[in-house]
Design a protein that fits this description.
alpha/beta; Glutaredoxin; five-stranded mixed β-sheet; two-stranded antiparallel sheet
Length: 174
């Protein structure tokens, strides 16, 4: 699904190896979340989405699996919504998501910093501030890798992200 695009947004989205721009956004309850502060404890998965995006709706339950297994520790997951707080809360309730939701709906400042062109767009940002994974759409391989990295930062053993009963493609474009 096409995301917001502006004249400030030149070139493609940020790629692996690039420095992640710092930002602070409030979650749907008004609590601020600062990337530079979060990176002091471990990696951050910044998952950009729109509530109307079918690929986001497909992808986010798998991101929730990662959060349920390894979140709340050193590694963090943030859903960065291109919708307002009320609609974002409804999306989270519908898909039973529990990781922080950070609306970026007022002129999309953070989406523009990361040069988002389509959603979902996922960035795994390492504690050194560099992006190690940058992907648009659903990517089974990249979600598996994110889960492995999150497991490595926790005290929990790695668990395969995808169950044999899951019917998932290798990739779905956003």
């Amino acid at each position: 699904m096409r995301a917001f695009w502006s004249k400030k947004n030149t070139g493609g989205m940020l790629e692996a190896g690039a420095a992640a721009p710092d930002f602070t956004l409030n979650d749907v309850d008004g609590k601020p979340h600062s990337l530079s502060d979060a990176l002091k404890t471990g990696p951050v998965l910044a998952a950009f989405f729109k509530i109307s995006c079918p690929v986001c709706q497909f992808t986010f339950p798998f991101i929730e699996r990662i959060f349920e297994r390894y979140g709340g520790g050193k590694a963090q997951i943030w859903g960065i919504s291109q919708d307002d707080a009320r609609d974002t809360k409804d999306f989270y309730k519908e898909f039973d998501l529990s990781f922080p939701a950070l609306p970026d709906a007022d002129c999309y400042p953070v989406s523009n910093l990361y040069r988002i062109t389509n959603v979902p767009s996922l960035f795994l940002i390492e504690p050194d501030g560099k992006i190690s994974i940058s992907v648009t759409g659903f990517s089974k391989k990249d979600l598996d890798e994110i889960a492995k990295r999150f497991a490595a930062t926790s005290t929990k053993p790695p668990i395969p992200l995808f169950a044999p009963s899951d019917i998932v493609p290798d990739y779905k474009p956003g």
